[in-house]
Amino acid sequence: MSYLIGLLISHTFDENEIADEQLYKEILLGKLSVNEGMFYENAISQILVANGHKLYFYTKYDPVTHRNEIEIDFILSNNSKLKYKIFPIEVKSTERYATRSLEKFNEKFHARIGNNYVIHPKNLKKEGNTLFIPAYMAICL
Question: How many C-beta neighbours within 10 Å does residue 117 have?
Fold first, then answer.
């Protein structure tokens, strides 16, 4: 799994024509700016796929503001024919974050949602129908 994240890092900085060993040294020494959220989401996606999940995402573009109003990183389903439910997942790589997209998504699709998940670097907690889980627990989904 980690080789794919390494591949993603290499391709992200490929246009800078930095040798791989130099690239990783510069990242580790803090000399290159890295969008850690992208790598965090990639690692979580690999965990979910390894558990046999098909991954879906959701985005709603607002033509008035010219930006995405709602973005959900991953959506899992229970694959039930009778009581179909979806499970939106937001991935947050920092300790400070907002969940506005998840809240808007819930307002729009509340009848179809089982539980919400936020995968983050903090401890396990539950608020309403949202379970906040540390990244190492993503394998439990």
Answer: 22
pLDDT digits (tens, 9 = 90+) for 49-83: 999 999 999 999 888 888 888 999 999 998 888 88
Residues 6+ apart with CB under 8 A from 4: 42, 46
Q: Are 85 and 113 in contact (CB under 8 A)?
A: yes
Q: Are 140 and 133 in contact (CB under 8 A)?
A: yes
Neighbouring residues of 115: CB distance < 8 A, sequence distance ≥ 6? 87, 129, 130, 131
Rounded Cα distance, 141 and 139, in Å: 6
Q: Which architecture, in CATH terms, is 36-140?
A: 3-Layer(aba) Sandwich (3.40)
> Per-domain residue ranges for the chain?
1-34, 36-140
pTM for this entry: 0.77
pLDDT at residue 17, rounded to an integer: 53
